[in-house]
Structure formats: C-alpha cells, structure tokens
Design a protein that fits this description.
single chain, mainly alpha, MetI-like fold, 10 helices, 81% helix, globular
Length: 248
C-alpha cells in the first residue's frame, strides 16, 4: 500500500471512530456532533451564504499576510545574508524567535492599527516572517559555488545571475519558507480573530461557541481544516517536485 493510500486510510478510520462514538453517545452531542453532520452543516453554510463575508475576510487576510511575509522575509533574508556582522548578531535571536508568544504584542498592534484587519495581518506577519527569513538564509547558503563561478566565466550580469542561476538553485529551500509562512499566516489570522475582530471565521467560531451553536462552530472548524489540508497538499506537491529537481 502506498504512503498516500495509507494516510487516507488512517484519516478515514479516525473519522469513522469519531462518528461511531458520537452516534453511540460515548461523545455527548453537547460536546461534539458527528462528522457527517459537520459536513451537512458546512454544505448548508456555503449554500446559504450566511458566513460568506466572514469566510472571504479571513481568507483574504491570510493571503495578504502570507504574501507580505514571503516578500518581507525574502528581502530581509537577502539583506541579512549580505551583512555578515548583522547576521552573526541576529542568528541567535532568529533561532529562539518562536519561543516568544507573539500574541502578547496584540495591545501594541491595536494601538498602532486599531481593531480590525490591519492588526490581524500585522500579527500574522510577525508570526510568519521569520520562517521565510531563515529559509532564505539557508537557501542562499546552499547555492553551489560552481554555479556562481560558471556565471562569472560567462560574464553574466549580476541581476541575470541572481534570476537565472541563484534563485532556481535556492528555490527548494525558499519554498520551505513559503510553506511555513502560509501555515503561520493561517494560525495568526484565525487565532487573532478570536480576540481582535468582530468578523471573520475565528470570530464566528468564538461567537458560536459562546452561544452553544455547536453545529455552526464545528462546520466552520471543518471548513478551516479542509481548506488548510487542500492548500498544504498543493504546496507539498510543488515542494516534492522542487526537491526532486534538486536531487538530479
């Protein structure tokens, strides 16, 4: 059995187990509804458009945060790599960055940007950008010297060398940073919406929880899980192709 089919089988068995436990009362309905009901409720939510604005807002914020994190992290990584003294000073801080609970800074972002999407995106960027910086440093470090020497032999301009030789060589490592940035952007946006927003999927889940609307809450949670799984699967497919090209 292939790895993909084995993964699908494990997930299917877990879902079936939760369905059985919910249907037989082992898990009370007040705690969790069966997965089949989550799917039905999610279908109704998407068809009715009741949470359409929240869904669009959250996914838009995720896309903006992920894009800005990748761009800022890539540029910052290149700058840090070009300044060895700065890199020596920052690398210990980058290594321990994720030990800092990013969300403790949310009062600062509220003061700077107010309550709303700007603060949420700022927190998500703060959470995601370092992964892209680290990936950029790692990728540039691993560009084979022979490629740069080849460019010098052919007298290629610096910009052309960067775009045609260095960037493709570093792409597999850079894409690892892209994957992590997207994942952290989802975490940052959805989590921030619980405390910083009056709209969005995170806010809708918190509202449903506080009002004992389990069907809405679990359907929206399922939407996030399905979306993240689809995005992650697509990114992993691209990543495997880049890694395969690197190993040739």
């Amino acid at each position: 059995m292939s790895e993909s089919w084995l993964r699908i089988l494990v997930v299917a068995l877990l879902i079936g187990l939760v369905e059985l436990m919910s249907r037989t009362g082992v898990i009370p309905l007040q705690v969790m509804i069966p997965p089949s009901q989550m799917v039905v409720e999610l279908g109704w939510i998407l068809a009715s458009g009741e949470f359409a604005n929240d869904i669009v807002l959250s996914f838009t914020n995720v896309a903006i945060a992920a894009l800005l994190s990748v761009l800022i992290g890539f540029v910052a990584g290149l700058v840090i790599h070009s300044l060895p003294s700065l890199r020596d000073a920052l690398e210990p801080l980058l290594a321990s960055y994720y030990a800092i609970p990013t969300f403790v800074f949310y009062p600062i972002f509220i003061t700077l940007f107010g309550v709303g999407s700007a603060s949420i995106i700022a927190i998500a960027i703060l959470l995601a950008v370092v992964s892209m910086i680290t990936a950029t440093l790692n990728g540039v470090d691993r560009i084979p010297r022979v490629l740069r020497k080849t460019a010098q032999v052919y007298r290629m301009p610096r910009l052309k060398t960067a775009l045609l030789i260095e960037l493709p060589a570093a792409a597999p490592y850079l894409f690892t940073g892209v994957k992590l940035s997207v994942a952290y952007a989802f975490i940052g946006v959805i989590a921030s919406e619980f405390i910083l927003s009056g709209a969005g999927i995170g806010y809708a889940i918190a509202y449903a929880y506080n009002n004992f609307e389990n069907r809405h809450m679990y359907a929206l949670m399922l939407l996030i899980l399905v979306t993240v799984t689809i995005v992650n699967t697509a990114l992993n497919h691209i990543d495997r192709r880049l890694q395969a090209r690197r190993q040739r």
